[in-house]
Amino acid sequence: MADLIKKPFNVKEIREQFPALRQKIYGKNLVYFDNGATSQKPQLVLDAINLFYSKENANIHRGVHFMSQKATTEYEASRIRIQKYLNAKKSEEIIFTKGATDGINLVAFSYGELLQAGDEILISAMEHHSNIVPWQMLCLRKGLVLKVIPINKKGEILMEEYEKMLSRKTKLVAITHISNTLGTINPIKEIVQKAHSVGAKVLVDGAQSIQHLKVDVRDLDCDFFVFSSHKVFGPTGIGVLYGKEDLLDRMPPYQGGGDMISKVTFERTTYNELPFKFEAGTPHIAGGICLGTAFEYLESIDMVAAEKHERELAKYAEDILDTFEGLHIIGEAKNKTSVVSFTVDGLHPFDIGTLLDKQGIAVRTGHHCTQPLMDFFKIPGTVRASFAFYNTRQEIDLFVEAFEKSLSMLK
Amino acid sequence: MSIEEKQQEIIAEFNVFDDWMEKYEYIIDLGKDLPLIAPEFKTDDRLIEGCQSRVWLHSEFKNNLMEYSADSDAIITKGIIGLLIQVMNKETPETILKTDLHFIKEIGLQEHLSPTRANGLLGMVKRMKTEALKYINN
Ligand SMILES: Cc1ncc(COP(=O)(O)O)c(C=O)c1O
Predict the structure, then answer these.
(1) Is B51 among the residues known to form the active site?
(2) N or C: which end of chain A has fewer CB within 10 A?
């Protein structure tokens, strides 16, 4: 894989790389504003998937033959590429998982085994169900206490409250980097420093940040970082758990099976080293390799310019939406990514979403897997437009036009 | 009118629409016009929780026929409920149980009754049938 050279940021050129964006839906040009749910895939990734299954398909870590060796080499090369992208110290710290949810469950089980009744876990009020339920399950299993860091009406963490909640009993803070519903970017570095000062570890749910920000796990100094490939231009069914080596070393395996063992007898089994200790069974090989390709693609993008473009899109959309009577933007954090969530007085998000869909506009409506957050705002759900760097102002204009039409039908 | 004739009537009505927006305009108008359920029946035991929108269903058995009333917090859902009730109301439990609501597919709204849609409508049709079942052989 040759390294691509970073080109000046150009939306038109970027869009040409994404065939899914050039579709008509119900006869209308597709406007894809559901990037928070999943991202579309660039041609580079599509070609890599095709190539793998056409020519390179073989099982890894166990073959003597040419194809197996080649697949193994590529799978491990992808791990190294991801390690470098995240600036992790070692490739052993990159564990392939099924996705963000799987990574959180791994940590909840495995790190959870090191904890004792009475220990405390902190999450925030804006977490995705994936970063709530595994901790509730762990708390039930081990008699731990789950506490929720409150937020303000803008959708920002109350840092003073957070500090007050930290104590020697706190063993883990599990927090999202970016809220999928509100777009809030949390001050992770500060959160990590404060947690470390009482000896607690921090898991960062990076499902919504990896595609928007240049993530550096050593700069953040978090202990775990999870994300899903499908939200960062890679295939579905694969993701990554980054963990600090000494911590991963101390944690027992999550699942048993092939690949994760060193030696098996009926009396006693010894486990493989990192990262394989946490990768039981034949993994999603094509996914792992092609996630590497997705990062190869990302490396070719000027992420600073891309993020600026995304923020401009969100600002442009919010400024227009603000002029609608009875429309409320949900999530007004000072530091925010390109997510625009809103409600309209007297209208149900589902109705708005259905009518937008019939005009070719893909948004998400509902609670976005953050029901407790909806309860906090006392709303049943929102309409959410979430932008990626391949979106444009013209698309927002189309969205606004379709939105006005929907309103006129519903009111 | 038989239950099949009622379905055919709706299909004919929808045939005049040229595009999606016209269809939805009609459904929304249905939803707006119909006060479907008496407020005292909007209780939790009549609630069918969907992931997106919520549906309340009340049923009565009168003169050997089922009578339904329902409501939803989303207006499109409510409009589709209007269509379902138009078809199912004042039919015998036996007819309700054996009827295939094929008109929904023919007017292009099957997505709203798919299990993935999670708007409570599929649950509502199921509950319409289980309520009817109570009055068979009783
Ligand atoms: C903040 C956040 N966390 C976790 C997840 C779960 O990701 P996945 O379903 O890919 O495991 C999502 C996906 O919507 C998310 O937005």
Answers:
(1) yes
(2) C
